[in-house]
User: What shape does this take?
Amino acid sequence: IGTKLHQATRKVISKRQPALLRSIPKFNGYCEDLERLRPPACMIPILTPLSTRLNTLRDDPSLHEDVWITPAEGQIPRWLNDVDVRDGIHALHSADRCAEESVRLNMECRNMSTWLTEELRIVKAAIGTLTGKTLKSHATNTN
Assistant: This one.
């Protein structure tokens, strides 16, 4: 991210920080109320309370879940209800991204090796075309 864009983003976040810090405890209170009022046999998942630290919110998967859009039928999926399953999914995604990055880095390594080989060939060809006279005049000009 460019420096200007990063600074603009930080400025916008700092403007909204007080409102967010007021809203999060209110949301967490609603989560507690819903959990307390939910009947024991209810299959509707309750949202989890949010962290009051803004830096940890960025990595919170519960912010991206639309659990109330469609009614829950049957048992709640484990990816939705089990933190360990969600952590496993995130770990698999990280491993996949690492494998993709490894492929990209290997390709870049091959490209750089090919480029360096070609550059060395060009330098060797250039040195081979120089005559002794040219080398002497070049050496005297650089001193």
